[in-house]
């Protein structure tokens, strides 16, 4: 599978802070196979007539912006690359969701080198495995902060059953060997799924980590009988017990050691990692302070999607996809519980 960034996607990724460079020569590719398009929840490519729509992304706007870009193929043979960042070493840093590797790619010739393989990452579905990636702002600046942060799903069940959870882990980069070592778990036990993990990991301008946790794909497909908990908030007792099970559908703000920042918002009287809630599969955008929060992943024509913005501690997504069963127009139980028998006439 080759890395492919269409010019439209490249523009969006640059706006989202995923590509922070003035040089665009590494973006895009030549001919690709039929599976090199955007993927849905279960690795199915979008069909003919379906679109990749982003907020404010009018076709006329993109047509004008496309004229300023050229494209070429950089590298092939990656195993489902999912996150990309431009490193201070002049390389692209990628996470391979299925391959479970962090890979550095030299854009001039496509040479790639594996920085680390994370065998603990659990991958068996359409959106799990090795996910988020964030480079410390001081990486390779000579002040001892050569750190790289990743997120991935893992199996928390020691037995034969699979119990997905997500963790954020910090590695230390060794520029001599080009490898990542000294793993340190920042936070563990976050919600994990094979769908709608979201998993966008970014540094904010305040030097805090921002991490999006999706609604886990509940109330759809093989998880249709599971309620969406995007509006469910953690209690003080759950926070004290480090029970993060209600973090689904949230944007988290963390100190670099995984602790809760003292200036995080108090929501319903409780201060936790939760910075914003009510999301389907949120995406923070690294522009301004605090980061702007978006709700809603790729959109298909006719689908229900949340496209509102959220301030710190606010409720953003207001649709059946992102709302809890208390707000859903059609209760989630209607698809999962047997209907009550009709009343008998006397």
Can you tell me the residue ranges where pLDDT is under 50 for at least 5 consecutive residues?
A: 1-57, 287-341
The count of helical stretches stands at 3
The succession of helices and strands, N to C, reads: HHEEEEEEEEEEHEEEEEEE
Query: Can you tell me the overall shape?
Result: globular
Description:
- The protein is built from 3 helices and 17 strands.
- The protein has 346 residues and is mainly beta.
- The protein folds into 3 domains: 1-38 and 57-77, no CATH class; 82-194, 6 Propeller (Neuraminidase), CATH 2.120.10; 203-337, no CATH class.
- The longest helix has 9 residues, at 7-15.
- The termini are far apart.
Task: Give a short summary of the structure.
This protein is mainly beta.
Write the layout of secondary structure elements.
Blueprint: H1 7-15, H2 59-66, E1 81-86, E2 92-96, E3 101-105, E4 112-117, E5 130-135, E6 147-155, E7 164-174, E8 179-191, E9 198-203, E10 209-213, H3 236-240, E11 250-254, E12 266-267, E13 270-271, E14 274-277, E15 283-285, E16 292-294, E17 309-310
Label this structure with key terms.
3 domains; mainly beta; 4-stranded antiparallel sheet; single chain; 346 residues; Neuraminidase
């Amino acid at each position: 599978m080759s890395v492919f960034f269409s010019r439209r996607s490249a523009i969006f990724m640059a706006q989202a802070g995923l590509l922070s460079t003035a040089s665009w020569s590494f973006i895009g590719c030549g001919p690709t196979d039929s599976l090199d398009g955007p993927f849905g929840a279960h690795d199915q490519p979008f069909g003919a007539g379906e679109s990749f729509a982003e907020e404010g992304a009018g076709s006329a706007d993109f047509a004008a912006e496309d004229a300023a870009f050229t494209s070429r193929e950089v590298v092939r043979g990656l195993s489902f690359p999912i996150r990309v960042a431009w490193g201070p070493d002049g390389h692209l840093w990628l996470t391979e969701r299925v391959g479970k590797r962090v890979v550095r790619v030299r854009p001039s010739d496509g040479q790639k080198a594996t920085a680390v393989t994370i065998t603990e990452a659990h991958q068996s579905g359409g959106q799990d495995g090795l996910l988020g990636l964030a480079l410390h702002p001081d990486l390779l600046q000579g002040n001892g902060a050569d750190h790289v942060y990743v997120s991935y799903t893992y199996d928390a069940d020691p037995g034969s059953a699979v119990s997905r959870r997500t963790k954020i882990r910090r590695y230390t980069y060794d520029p001599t060997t080009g490898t990542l070592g000294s793993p340190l778990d920042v936070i563990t036990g976050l919600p994990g799924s094979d769908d709608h993990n979201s998993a966008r990991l970014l540094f904010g301008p305040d030097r805090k980590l921002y991490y999006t946790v999706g609604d886990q794909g509940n109330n759809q497909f093989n998880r249709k009988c599971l309620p969406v908990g995007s509006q469910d908030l953690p209690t003080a007792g759950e926070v004290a017990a480090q029970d993060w099970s209600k973090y689904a559908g949230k944007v988290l703000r963390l100190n670099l050691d995984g602790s809760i920042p003292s200036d995080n918002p108090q929501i319903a009287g409780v201060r936790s990692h939760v910075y914003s809630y009510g999301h389907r599969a949120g995406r923070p955008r690294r522009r301004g302070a605090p980061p702007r929060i978006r709700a809603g992943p790729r959109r298909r024509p006719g689908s229900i999607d949340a496209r509102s913005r959220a301030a710190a501690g606010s409720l953003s997504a207001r649709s059946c996809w992102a709302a809890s069963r208390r707000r859903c127009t059609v209760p989630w139980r209607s698809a999962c519980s047997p209907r009550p028998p009709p009343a008998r006439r006397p």
